[in-house]
Amino acid sequence: MIILNKNHSVLLVDQKCEGCTSCVKNCPTKAIRVHNGKAMIKDDYCIDCGECIRSCEHHAKSVLTENIDVINNYKYSIALLPPSFYGQFSKRINPEQISYALKGVGFFQVWDAALGAEVLNKATRAYLNREDEVLISSSCPVIVRLVQLLYPELIKHLSPFKAPVEIVAQAARYKIKKEYSVDDSDIGVFFITPCPAKRTAIENPLGLKESNIDGAIGVDVIYHQVITRLDNLEDLRRISLDREIPYNGIRWARSSGESELLDREDTLSVDGIHNVIEILEELDRGNLANIKYLELVACQPGCVGGVLNVKNPFMAKFNIELLLEKNKEIEGRNHNLCDYNIELDYFFKKKKIKPLDEDLLCAMKKLTKLEEVSKELPGLDCAACGAPDCRTLAEDIVGGLADKSNCVFILRKQIGDLADEMSRLTHTLPPVMQRKNRE
Amino acid sequence: MTNEEVRQEIINFEIEAGDFSSGGEASSKLKSILRKLGIPSQLIRKTAITTYELEINIIIHTFGGRISAEVSPKEIKVIASDQGPGIEDVDKAFQPGYSTANEKAREMGFGAGMGLCNIKRYSDNLEVRTKIGEGTTIEAYIYLDQSGDNIE
What we know:
The structure holds 2 protein chains of 2 kinds. By secondary structure, chain A is α/β, with parallel strands linked by helices. Helices cover 41% and strands 11% of the residues of chain A. Chain A has a 4-stranded parallel beta sheet with strand order 7-6-9-10, with helices on both faces. A 3-stranded antiparallel beta sheet of chain A has the order 1-2-5, with no helix packed on it. A 3-stranded parallel beta sheet of chain A has the order 8-12-11. The termini of chain A are far apart. In chain B, strands 1-2-3-5-4 form a 5-stranded antiparallel beta sheet, with helices on one face. Chain B has one domain: Histidine kinase-like ATPase, C-terminal domain (Heat Shock Protein 90), CATH 3.30.565.10. At the A-B interface, helix 14 of A face helix 1 and helix 2 of B.
């Protein structure tokens, strides 16, 4: 296994990678190249969206998450559940039972990130009533990184609050510290992550100096543990819970959940990273009149589509809808949503993409070269060179990262030309023999 | 030739009248090229919005035309030229809310009469040449040195 980059969470199981370029072509930021037969990720361009994991047929890509044993390192381990986790179970199994099973795994308490979603919903409502600017949800870390990278002028529109997981992690930590008078180091908060992006956001927090979460355990890792414990439960119905399930916040498990809760006419919900890019293009052109809130999520249809989830995204969404329907009386209940710290340590920063050259005149010269190389390439975007398309290969060539002969068509032509030349040379006789021939 | 005179065409797009589906292609391409050149993002945004509005104008109001852009160490110049019909009253055309767009364009959310205003607002200098029956050429400039009073 190779950790592709310390700043990201995608792992390459190199013996499984066939060098097929599926991931290269599906990467929304063109961050992947296949070199020496293996996929490599460019650190600066990766936004942790997980499209490469989704598109890899050989399962050569996975996510670096914690082993379950890690929870034993802490006296008080907390499982922090994303709303989408509930979508992994059929209606036969309710949130109470899931919590019970998680405690069986070894967690001291179970908390819901959905609570943070409700807190954020309240804050966002107030913000939208107060401010005139368009607001882009910053709950999905992929969206924040995408805006930082490709839409630096839209960064000011990002919602200036912490992500729900961080809000709840901080609150949980505080509460346990106070109630049990324990040291901070005795508490381990573990997020059950549906995606690589949320794991990366723990290691490299967005707008925060430090995360309140100690590690991420993949849904794929914990699912089996939960299921086996549920099978062994004698009576699934008689479990009472030490906390109230925040059903309103669980709406965030699938796209349009944020918009539903805001209950305004001027919200727009878009899911899927490629769709998100299109809508951000529109916003960047000043073309989204009458929209005040953009709920953008990288996965389809929302977090239930995260690559670490085990259920089909649409089945998971179906499960969430059933759960909400079954508990709609409880849904409206108000928890105490005060006492949460939602403020960022600092606002999100733009990320600078490296230009062709720092000097404009040199960059212009390189651009001319790039256009020339681009014209020579076949324009088939076959990706056999390891770059996603001909234009990107041309960029890599100009940047000194690739060679023209990486293109199989150019190579074929070069070999053809060479063969012609060889053929011509074989028919050219040495001067001494030429006369002989004529005779 | 001094550095100031180095000028390079970076995009050149033909734009068909009424082709709403291609609207935005020129500005998107221009945007990505300007990023490769290391142009500051706020200037890229100004250029992209200007270019987009010029594209849409050609699509809605003309018989078709062309968008190109040039870059030099001094400025980015976006040129939109069309084959008519020409602008009858240029002063009026620049008034906010004034539009001659047809129902189809308005139905699609265009034609609010803000296009030329936005072009004026986001560019640092603008030259309009128009002749009824022949066409219009608009040249919009975005200066790379924004230390003057052209900053928005």
